[in-house]
Amino acid sequence: MGIQRHSTFFTAFFSACTLIIAFSAYASLSSNITLQSVLEKGLPVLAIDTEGGKKIKSRDEYLKATYLYFEAGSSSASLGGSCKIRGRGNTTWETRELYKKPYLLKLDEAASFSSFPAAEKWVLMANTADKTQLRNSYATHLSKTAFSGGIWQSSCSFINLFVNGSYNGLYAITEKIEMTPERIPLEEEKGSFLFEVNTRQDQDWNFRTKNGVPFSIRTSLTPEKRRFVAQQEKIQKAECILFGEEFTDGERGWRTVLDEVSFADWYLLNELTKNHDAKFQSSCYMYYNSENGKIHMGPAWDFDISCGNISWDDCDKPEGFWVAKASWYERLFEDPKFVEFVQKRWTEERGKIEESLNWLDEQAENLEDEIMLNDAVWKNIGRRQWPHAPGWRSRKTHGDEITYMKDWLKKRIAWLDEELFKL
């Protein structure tokens, strides 16, 4: 990949930083882990320096910064330039015992990481609540290989992150969910829009449907009340049809306003992993496609407290339905044809689900060194940490955590093989 030139300033900046790196590595302020030593490992490195070396303390206010991106094994940056960075997330940002924080990176000019389409905004996922570091990437893998209903699924790739010369840990650089030509390729100007189930109700436009589902509408356009009201009306209309007397009717029922494939695939991915937030609590994304007049479920997002990594609501247990009890899904499962379609999709993708366990093993092996390096700094494995997954005291190594996750998934798959066909 060639160096992307942004400006005269960047050319000078890049040359100066490359020269500095050639003679002396960035020294980690916390652990003596140098940039040069990490570059010799098998992952790309992203180095971010905030203006004046300021700490990233806010998830509301951006800090000005510069960045350099190094391909795996390379001592020369292939990308770099000016950017802004701030914190992101809710529980992960707010929970005190989760010290390693996620960030939102906004480049001054779009760039491509890990061969993903160029974009300005990137999520730096910390995965700090997940001692395997793999639950989010595992769900992403399944969303692309098995349950790929929808027109776009977010991609992620692991990197080592340095902030102000200090090693910050293993992160997943992730495509942000947004409506752009490179991501969800629909146009807001033509009436399409992105929204999510969000109990926090903390966006520009928030409302609850007649059935009490809390939605927030996401937009990149200038907030406009009239447009938001029209979008709210489309969501409410879809819910009214779903819960109406003729909801199973082929010409007047829910299939005229909801996309069956994306709703089935999103359900199976989240039910398989028993993702706690997916019971219409938070990070349940949907988008309205003005081209077909339907609401699509997804893209999939936020799986750090899935696959048994939780200690409440029985989501630690591989048995029991969870997402099927969510408001809209509980109603969908009253339609025998939807039940049959979900069962069909499970059967079709069953082989890929089995293969995904091998993928998990491969990823764990490939990332073992980086995960151990990350844990040397953040010291998560074998220690009490939210969300306090049962049995954490007995799991002293990363291999123990992977074994726990795999065993949980095997039991979950076996349970769904039986119970999904009893619905």
Give a structural overview.
With 423 residues, the protein is of the alpha+beta class. It contains ten helices and twelve strands. Strands 1-2-3-4-5-7-6 form a seven-stranded mixed β-barrel. A five-stranded antiparallel beta sheet has the order 9-10-8-11-12. The chain starts with 7 loop residues before the first helix and ends with a helix.
> Strand content of the residues, in percent?
15-25%
Cα shape: globular
Characterize the main sheet: 7 strands, mixed, barrel
The run of helices and strands is HHEEEHEEHEEEEEHHEEHHHH
Could you list the spans in which at least 5 consecutive residues all have pLDDT below 50? 1-30
Query: Can you list the strand order of the major beta sheet?
Result: 1-2-3-4-5-7-6
Tally of separate helices: 10
Q: What percentage of residues falls in helices of 4 or more residues?
A: 25-40%
Radius of gyration equals: 22 Å
Alpha-beta classification: alpha+beta
- State the total count of DSSP E strands: 12
What is the overall pLDDT average? 92
Distance between the termini: 51 Å
Outline of the structure:
The protein is 32% helix and 20% strand.
Using brief descriptors, characterize the structure shown.
423 residues; alpha+beta; seven-stranded mixed β-barrel; five-stranded antiparallel sheet; 10 helices; 12 strands; globular; disordered N terminus
